[in-house]
């Protein structure tokens, strides 16, 4: 696996031609009456062409505004990626936003996500953050990954994320 920092002009639909976003979800974490619990919520998460186009625009914006996008490549094919936004935020300006981390379905469970997460932490710390902020998919499997990476419920919620994805779990990871 090769980990390569991407440039904006390298991000296009062709880059994702062999990337399998699909995630079959059966259970999700939900906060009910202030308490976290697991609920049945079966669905298949996958990206439409419009969502790929939105992702491409977002990743390009991350790079052009000074953020970080790193790809994981197997034999020249994108199999994972992570992005971190450049602007510190929060009451004490201590957070940087880990805006995406995804591993192709055919490559999950091989440590790629862990390596991408660790490299994102290094970049964030080098750019002044004390914590990574993650508005994370609430699927049980996704949350297990973030907990294994040392994430906990965010001390300070980013309301923009809460409004955009109300079912996401708002997490942070100390750097």
Automatic annotation (TrEMBL):
Residues 4-175 form the N-acetyltransferase domain. The keyword Acyltransferase applies. SUPFAM superfamilies: Acyl-CoA N-acyltransferases (Nat). Keywords: Acyltransferase, Transferase. Gene3D superfamilies: 3.40.630.30. It comes from Anaerocolumna xylanovorans DSM 12503. PROSITE patterns: GNAT. PANTHER family: AMINOALKYLPHOSPHONATE N-ACETYLTRANSFERASE-RELATED, AMINOALKYLPHOSPHONATE N-ACETYLTRANSFERASE-RELATED-RELATED. One of its GO terms (molecular function) is acyltransferase activity, transferring groups other than amino-acyl groups. This is Acetyltransferase (GNAT) family protein. The keyword Heme does not apply.
């Amino acid at each position: 696996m090769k980990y390569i920092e991407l440039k904006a002009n390298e991000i296009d639909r062709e880059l994702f031609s062999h990337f399998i976003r699909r995630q079959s979800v059966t259970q999700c974490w939900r906060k009910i009456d202030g308490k976290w619990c697991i609920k049945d919520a079966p669905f298949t998460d996958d990206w439409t062409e419009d969502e790929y186009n939105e992702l491409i625009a977002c990743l390009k914006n991350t790079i052009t505004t000074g953020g970080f996008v790193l790809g994981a490549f197997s034999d020249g094919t994108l199999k994972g990626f992570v992005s971190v936004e450049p602007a510190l935020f929060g009451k004490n300006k201590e957070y940087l936003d880990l805006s995406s981390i995804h591993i192709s379905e055919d490559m999950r469970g091989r440590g790629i996500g862990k390596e991408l997460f660790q490299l994102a932490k290094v970049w964030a710390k080098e750019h002044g953050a004390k914590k990574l902020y993650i508005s994370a998919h609430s699927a049980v499997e996704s949350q297990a990954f973030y907990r294994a990476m040392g994430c906990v419920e965010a001390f300070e919620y980013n309301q923009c994320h809460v409004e955009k994805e109300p079912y996401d779990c708002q997490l942070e990871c100390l750097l």
